[in-house]
Automatic annotation (TrEMBL):
This is salicylate--[aryl-carrier protein] ligase. It comes from the Bacteria. One of its GO terms (molecular function) is ligase activity, forming carbon-sulfur bonds. Pfam families: AMP-binding, AMP-binding_C, Chorismate_bind. It catalyses: salicylate + holo-[ACP] + ATP = salicyl-[ACP] + AMP + diphosphate. InterPro entries: ADC_synthase, AMP-bd_C, AMP-bd_C_sf, AMP-binding_CS, AMP-dep_synth/lig_dom, ANL_N_sf, ATP-dep_AMP-bd_enzyme, Chorismate_C. Residues 443-519 form the AMP-binding enzyme C-terminal domain. The keyword Acyltransferase does not apply. Residues 711-963 form the Chorismate-utilising enzyme C-terminal domain. Signal peptide: none annotated.
Length: 989
């Protein structure tokens, strides 16, 4: 630790040389109010505050806090999302001389309790609710267990134990007299999992931090700063962030979340000139510009920090977002490095810039404490006018990271470029000690990113009995490509790297786990893959080039493996085939059962998403994918109705023994056993080597025109009457047309897939049940990143037999009040269902009332997208949206009751879903329509129509014919039954 003499000497120097001003942060606010009074200082939604009004609000809130007894030197835990309430609370505490402890909105009970035990706060200011999480129960528990905590203040609707923040409107009184060199606030270190250390920042050093940053970054009175990252973090708070913008007389616009959906609209509306992101968000913003056309022309500068920004990503910022890029390397403990606004592009793209202050003393040292040579990597140590001299109440740790001269040993590894800029190479602790050899993770990560198939990479150390630590490469691949460990080793061999630096293990991810501030969380990666390696079986894999079209080779594989249980699922250019079952999850009565070999485990199924999360979490496999089905009658359970008995479990998921995924030119084969992998590879290569037989011309032609036509008209008329009585708004009624014979699944799939343009297609065979279908829409799509999508199709017309006829029918579709009303109420319900599980600021309709062509029909279609709320997973999205509104009705509960009453029998899989999900959180569920079914010796096709108050029975019957025409003409029956099937029945176009 530095001596008191050193600290006093440095403090005098910083005051004498003008780095530290003799004013508190509250006095700075008073000055800004005087200088910039009528200008707009803060914007949150529709609310705006001028500088004068903001200071008045701060003064009144400080008075209210003082009335509670909060005084100079008290610590106050502040956990609020971005917004005016945060800014007012922060400066009100500074006015009192109290120390705000800036917790992140993402922190939960474990972190909050640890902070309370360490800092012993007097009060806790917290949001009522944010992104679906209710903070009040957690806060009340802290109030009960922490003796120092006397006041709970709620921003929003208070609980019984708290007082509303809005009620604290006291008399304006004189501010506390504080020494500018005293502590002003406590920042949190790092933001990683576990308990962060507390970083005391003084009034003088933090004011300099913010104001010097604002000047360097070109902020002025016309600057508009978008606070997109969590404002409690040092980067958006004072680098230059909120405080730096206000010091220049600029305007701060608050975004609740940093997602592009919200931020782009704010940039366009408020004329935002500056903002800051972390690299993971930069990538999402760049991707969003592929479809978002918001006016971002006001944006001048994007700051990027928090982690190293890959050069290839950095190079896309200006061309795509149209603004300059500034790389920032900084730490809440102090040192800030910026690329300058006039730096050459190579400097901006490839370095992290130079220190903010000429008084910053930065050294790079080796492990033995000696300075490293030019261009060599060493640990960064620093002291200066805004770098701390010790963590709060952490003497033992301070002894480790501060030396006798007062230098803070950051643990960051860096080197100086020839032009004097800093290049950060990683963390000192991010070294792999493999059999005694020290390997820098950052070096391997950079070389991994040079592989043409790798988009991003992270290297972690995993415990290894033989090596001590093994090198695990975690990668995100580009597009739909596949990668094997042998590919990486060939890559490193070509680069001439010694063998001990080659990865020992490869893990492919769809996205990174992130900390609360958006940084890559390597601790989560280590925990995940260390635990999985210890207890979970790995799939064996191989990639095989193929020459045949994927859908044809997939059909040939299905034909080979039948009558084994299997599911073929086409989505996004991939034909995925799951064969057999290594584990099965089934909903049986009120229990969810996991079966693996002879072992069984069960969970209560009252909360189905929770039960599924537990069951899937127990799977003893790495990187699994499950194939499954959900019957329509599952909806009755989800909506609290008596369950109708069906022939099969309402929900079933199977983890296949063999998993084959086909794309143009390549096949990925995965199996749990070596012999199964070898057999599947041999069979696939054999089938790919010989041409497939042409599709035979004979097919079944069921009587879709007249079968049960009168009965169906009567059902429609009855439903219309019930709708007009107000019993429900919309109902989908279906009719079932039998087939005489057994399905030929493969022939039907090949013929139907050639004739249809489905959103998804599938073959499913399970015991005595089978189906083949061409789904016009998905029930729900959830990405590994938690992005949720659904595409309701409601409103139907045939395509006709010519371009002109199709256009005429499309115009008729767009002008039919019944079809438009039916579609609008479907979209409204889907939106309301997503509201319950999605972050409100990131939910929207990305496409409305377009037309989708599906086989022989066209539909009105819309697409809704959102981001899962904190605490929700893919199964919450599934439960919210199942069954599809376009296959049930509105409201769903009443519609389910009416369907059962009118149709008189369970639908089984019709209007349920076939789906896939995986260990990364992905879920993709296809609505089961345009499908032919087989159960034991009965086969059928089925179709429905949406009934609203304007419906006419004959028109709805015609709609079922139009839909059946997309599947019925392509249904093939297995020999020898085909020859005896009546071939003369009419199929209406």
């Amino acid at each position: 630790m530095p001596t008191l003499h050193w600290r006093d000497t440095q403090a005098r120097k910083f005051v004498q040389q003008g780095y530290w001003e003799p004013r508190s942060l509250n006095e700075h606010l008073q000055e800004w109010s005087h200088r910039f009074g009528p200008r707009i200082a803060l914007v949150e939604g529709e609310q705006q505050l001028s500088y004068f009004d903001f200071e008045q609000q701060v003064c009144c809130l400080a008075g209210g806090l003082a009335d509670l007894g909060i005084q100079c030197g008290d610590r106050v835990l502040l956990q609020l999302p971005n917004g005016i309430a945060f800014a007012s609370s922060f400066f009100a505490l500074l006015r009192l001389g109290a120390w705000p402890i800036l917790a992140m909105p993402a922190h939960r009970e474990r972190e909050i309790q640890a902070l309370c035990e360490l800092a012993e706060p007097t009060a806790y200011i917290v949001a009522e609710r944010f992104l679906g999480y209710d903070y009040r129960p957690m806060a009340e528990r802290q109030l009960g267990r922490q003796a120092s905590l006397r006041h709970l203040i709620i921003a929003g609707k208070p609980s019984n134990a708290g007082v509303p923040l809005s009620a604290l409107n006291g008399e304006i009184r004189r501010p506390a007299v504080v020494d500018p060199l005293d502590t002003a606030l406590l920042l949190l270190s790092g933001g990683t999992t576990g308990t962060p250390k507390l970083i005391p920042r003084s009034h003088a050093d933090y004011a300099y931090n913010a104001k010097a940053s604002a000047r360097l970054c070109g902020f002025a009175g016309d600057s508009v700063y978008l606070a997109a990252l969590p404002i409690a973090h040092n980067f958006p708070l004072a680098c230059p962030g909120l405080i730096g913008t206000l010091s220049m007389g600029g305007k701060v616009v608050f975004a609740l979340t940093p997602g592009a959906d919200e931020a782009f609209g704010l940039i366009a509306r408020e004329g935002v000139t500056h903002t800051a992101l972390v690299p993971s968000l930069v990538k999402l913003w760049l991707q969003a510009r592929e479809w978002d056309k918001s006016d971002l022309s006001s944006l001048r500068l994007l700051q990027v920090g928090g982690a190293r920004l890959p050069a290839e990503l950095a190079a896309q910022v200006t061309p795509i977002l149209g603004c300059a890029l500034q790389q920032v390397f900084g730490m809440a403990e102090g040192l800030l490095c910026y690329t300058r606004l006039d730096d050459p592009q190579q400097v901006v793209l490839n370095t992290q810039g130079r220190p903010l202050s000429e008084a910053d003393e930065v050294r790079l040292i080796s492990a033995d404490g000696q300075p490293v040579g030019d261009g060599q990597t060493g640990e960064l140590i620093v002291r200066g006018p805004y770098t701390i001299h010790g963590y709060y109440r952490a003497e033992a740790h301070n002894q480790q990271v501060f030396d006798a001269e007062g230098f803070y040993h950051s643990g960051d590894l860096a080197r100086w470029s020839p032009d004097g800029n800093l290049v950060v190479e990683g963390r000192l602790k991010e070294q792999i000690n493999r059999a005694g050899e020290k390997i820098a993770a950052a070096e391997i990560e950079q070389l991994l990113r040079e592989h043409p198939q790798i988009q991003d990479a992270a290297v972690i150390a995993l415990a290894d009995k033989r090596l001590g630590e093994r090198l695990c490469a975690c990668v995100i691949v580009r597009g739909d490509q596949t990668l094997e460990l042998t590919d990486l080793r060939q890559h490193f061999q070509a680069l001439g790297l010694p063998r001990h630096k080659w990865p020992d293990q490869l893990e492919t991810l769809h996205s990174w786990p992130l900390t609360s501030i958006g940084k890559l969380d390597k601790r989560q990666l280590q925990q995940r893959f260390q635990d999985e390696a210890a207890s979970r079986a790995a799939y064996l894999e191989c990639c095989v080039p193929i020459r045949e079209k994927p859908q044809e080779l997939a059909a040939a594989l299905v034909k080979h493996y039948l009558p084994d249980d299997l599911t073929l699922y086409e989505h996004n250019g991939e034909w995925a085939l799951g064969i057999g079952s290594a584990a099965c999850i089934r909903l049986l009565g009120n229990q969810l059962q996991l079966s693996i070999a002879e072992q069984r485990r069960q969970w209560p199924a009252e909360d189905l998403p929770e039960a599924l999360g537990k069951a899937l979490g127990e799977l003893p496999f790495q990187d699994w994918r499950a194939y499954g089905t959900a019957c329509f009658e599952l909806a009755r359970r989800l909506h609290g109705l008596p369950v109708q008995d069906g022939s099969r479990p309402p929900l079933r998921l199977d983890i296949p023994a063999v998993d084959i995924r086909l794309r143009d030119g390549t096949a990925l084969i995965r199996a749990l056993q070596p012999e199964a992998l070898a057999s599947a590879k041999a069979r696939l290569q054999e089938l790919d080597a010989k041409p497939l037989a042409p599709i035979r011309t004979g097919h079944a032609q069921p009587n879709v025109a007249t079968h049960d036509a009168a009965l169906y008209r009567g059902q429609v008329a009855s439903a219309v009457a019930e709708i007009r009585q107000g019993r429900y708004q919309k109902l989908i009624l279906s009719r079932k047309v039998p087939l005489k014979g057994n399905l030929d699944l493969v022939a039907s799939y090949r013929a139907g897939r050639q004739a249809n343009t489905p959103a998804r297609s599938f073959i499913h065979h399970q015991g005595d049940f089978a189906c083949v279908g061409f789904s016009p829409e998905t029930v729900v799509e959830v990405s590994a990143q938690g992005l949720v999508g659904t595409q309701p199709l409601a409103g139907t017309r045939a395509l006709g037999d010519s371009v002109e006829k199709e256009a005429q029918l499309r115009d008729e579709l767009y002008s039919d009040p019944k079809e438009i009303a039916e579609h609008a109420v479907s979209v409204k319900l889907a939106f309301e269902e997503l509201q319950a599980i999605c972050e409100p600021q990131q939910l929207g309709v990305s496409e409305f009332m377009a037309v989708s062509r599906r086989g022989s029909v066209q539909h009105l279609s819309s697409r809704l997208r959102g981001q899962l709320r904190d605490g929700c997973n893919a199964w919450h999205a599934f439960a919210a949206l199942f069954p599809a509104v376009t296959a049930s009705g509105i409201p769903k509960r009443e519609a389910l009751q009416a369907i059962a009453a009118h149709e008189g029998a369970p639908r089984d899989l019709y209007s349920g879903c076939v789906m896939i999900c995986d260990s990364h959180g992905m879920l993709d569920a296809a609505l089961v329509l345009r499908t032919a079914f087989q159960h034991r010796d009965q086969a059928w096709v089925q179709a429905g129509a949406g009934i609203v108050s304007l419906s006419l029975p004959e028109r709805e019957l015609e709609e079922t014919r139009e839909k059946l025409a997309s599947i019925a003409p392509y249904v093939h029956l297995a020999e020898p039954q085909l020859a005896t099937v009546r071939q003369t029945a009419e199929v209406q176009p």
